UniProtKB/TrEMBL annotation:
Its main location: membrane. The chain crosses the membrane at residues 12-35, 47-67, 111-133, 153-179. This is Riboflavin transporter. It comes from Candidatus Pseudogracilibacillus intestinigallinarum. Keywords: Cell membrane, Membrane, Transmembrane, Transmembrane helix, Transport. It is found in: Cell membrane.
């Protein structure tokens, strides 16, 4: 019994590591959106985290987001810790509701509702955090002060629409992918009591 539990934990660790690595690779494949600041780039790195959250638990999805950001930070060097923290928060806000609802209710309805909630929560919370914490922290880090007007323009003209559009794009891509992987996810899904 103990041997089977430890091999199950090892398998979970291996799967999470693979999903985090896939997430990192997808993180490097990014593109800016027209009419928005070029430093805001859409990527699909939250998709492996969504899968991890659906198979294991919402915490596993968040762990994949964390590992991706940690590996990115190490790979790129300590150039922008503020951006890495912001990406972790945004990914967590997006992934957690989807994983939580799917683990609780299963089915496509829980996925769609979770993706909708995740997109809206990510857009709204990241807007507030950028205005009050992230932009001021970034300004301190690079030695630039942001006026209230500059912060307002940055969050309303950049951060809010970007996070909303990114959430919609990733969601639109994830739904058909979920249909293709649904049977596999259901087979691999760890019961809630064992997650």
């Amino acid at each position: 019994m103990q041997k089977s539990q430890s091999s199950s934990k090892l398998l979970k660790l291996v799967v999470l590591s693979l999903l985090a690595t896939m997430s990192l690779v997808l993180f490097f494949i990014s593109f800016p959106l027209p009419l928005l600041p070029p430093y805001l780039k859409v990527d699909f790195s939250d998709i492996p985290a969504l899968i991890a959250g659906m198979i294991f638990s919402p915490a596993a999805g968040v762990l994949v987001v964390f590992l991706k950001n940690l590996m990115y930070f190490v790979a790129k060097g300590a150039t922008d810790p503020v951006g890495v923290v912001a990406n972790f928060i945004a990914g967590t806000l997006y992934v957690f509701p989807v994983a939580y609802l799917y683990r609780k209710y299963s089915g496509i309805n829980s996925i769609v509702i979770g993706l909708t909630i995740g997109t809206v929560v990510m857009a709204v919370v990241m807007t507030i955090l950028n205005y009050f914490i992230i932009l001021p922290a970034y300004g301190m880090f690079v030695g630039v002060g942001f006026t209230d007007t500059a912060k307002w323009i940055a969050v309303i003209g950049g951060v809010l629409p970007f996070n909303f559009i990114k959430g919609v794009i990733v969601s639109i891509l994830f739904v058909p992918l979920f249909f293709k992987l649904k049977e596999w996810i259901e087979k691999k899904k760890v019961p809630t009591s064992a997650a």
